[in-house]
Write a structure and sequence with these properties.
about 220 residues; Arc Repressor Mutant, subunit A
Length: about 220
Amino acid sequence: MENPIIKVAIIEDRREIREGLAMLITYTDGFECTGKYGSMEEALASIRHKLPDVVLSDIGLPGMDGIEGIRILKEKYPHLTILMLSVYDDNERIFDALCAGACGYLLKKTPPAKLIESLRDAISGGAPMSPEVARKVITLFRDFRPPEKVNYDLTPHEIRLLKLLVEGHSYKTAAAELRVTVNTISFHLKNIYEKLQVHSKSEAVAKALQNRLIN
């Protein structure tokens, strides 16, 4: 049985890089380039017409940057795999991208063969990273010491709901688990967002994990 074609969309503002990546993907067996976008706004408007398996996205984009864009993409398409491809290797961007929902982070100097291998790895559930990035991530998490006790005044019910979100539940399945309506879930989530000072489910999950709000 043949392996399914891996569908890839590219979000990159520099035309020569975008076209080069598209050509690499198009002419690699087992891959198909389903879209190439010069901005995150263009991708958000069009990607639904031919949803890929994996998005290869730059960070430094005109208009909306890649990190804010992947938060929105993950909110709209939770199962979409997103891999960052950037010239930036600073701790803040790496950490923000991973917290926003990226599965991995590659530098643009990554050789073509390694890039293709990383796309396969990402689709298989891996977390591909350039060696320099992996070292920074290890250091980041080794040095990261969140406060021992920060609860943001969440109620026990709100903490239960947050735990379900971290486990991957949608509004609908969380409502079924807690035996309440979807409207009730939306009401509680609005309160959770306000208390945590976040604007999306992915941000709430990231903050819950960073601050150890759930067991």
